[in-house]
Write a structure and sequence with these properties.
TIM Barrel, 12 helices, 261 residues, 15% strand, globular, alpha/beta, two-stranded antiparallel sheet
Length: 261
């Protein structure tokens, strides 16, 4: 691997090789998402517990101070919305030149395997890999499922992750599921867990994150389960402990409770 590519990947991770990415890109298809109306204000108290920020170029330029001391993963696919006909009908929205101008350490592209637009989104990924390889910029594939939530099983996610890796993604973001180790074992590049729908309790979040880490994930890309929490700072602190300090679910709960005081 080229030095620049390897250096950027290492900068996205902690010294232990694990990562806590903070996604605030939801507005690219959801609009002003609850608790994310003012993205810069939302992340201010929690970004210290994260390793990188996943964001669109629009929000980066308009809401995030240039003094940010965290690496940026730039969302570069889109073109659809929640009120449109099909969330999978995405294309590349951001040029490699703008990726470089934004000083991004990586980019993120969604793929919708099994959808009507499977080929289009997989080619989006391939085209971005081709462009980014020239500049040593890693591409993170996001195995999106749109509204088809029933697809979140090990067989489907394992298929999607492997295809993304085969096309050149350096990291794959996917959902946690039962038998998550099967997903990780079939993917030759690092796997990061997405948050998905907001959980009902903090313990539910800690449990699936802990399980995924013990089964081979290198980290998380959790947004709503953190910044939509009534206690976002304690949530971020507790999750950081699971990712970087190998905290158990019980220890994470204790950290959460202590941070609330």
């Amino acid at each position: 691997m080229d030095w620049g590519m390897e250096n950027r990947l290492k900068n996205l991770m902690g010294s232990d090789g694990h990562c806590f990415f903070m996604p605030i890109d939801h507005g690219y298809f959801q609009g002003p998402t609850r608790c994310l109306e003012k993205p810069g204000v939302t992340i201010a108290p929690i970004i210290q517990y994260c390793d990188a920020l996943f964001v669109t170029r629009g929000v980066l330029r308009s809401a995030i101070p240039s003094s940010l001391n965290k690496p940026v993963i730039l969302r570069v696919s889109g073109g659809t919305s929640m009120v449109g006909k099909n969330l999978a009908n995405e294309e590349i929205t951001t040029s490699i030149e703008d990726v470089i101008r934004c000083n991004a350490s990586a980019v993120g592209v969604s793929v919708f395997v099994g959808s009507e637009f499977e080929k289009q989104t997989l080619l989006n990924l391939s085209k971005m890999v081709n462009a980014c390889e020239n500049y040593g910029i890693p591409v993170m594939a996001v195995t999106a499922v749109g509204k088809e939530m029933e697809k979140r099983d090990a067989r489907y996610l394992g298929l999607a992750c492997r295809i993304a890796a085969e096309l050149g993604a350096k990291v794959v973001k996917t959902y946690w599921c039962e038998n998550f180790d099967k997903v990780v074992c079939g993917c030759p590049v690092p796997v990061v867990m997405a948050g998905g729908p907001k959980c009902n309790t903090e313990k539910e979040v800690f449990e699936f994150v802990y399980d995924g880490m013990t089964k081979g994930a290198i980290g998380i890309n959790l947004g709503r389960n953190v910044w939509q929490s009534p206690q976002p700072v304690p949530m971020a602190k507790a999750l950081n402990a699971i990712i970087h300090k190998k905290a158990s679910v019980k220890q994470a709960q204790d950290i959460f409770k202590e941070a609330k005081k």
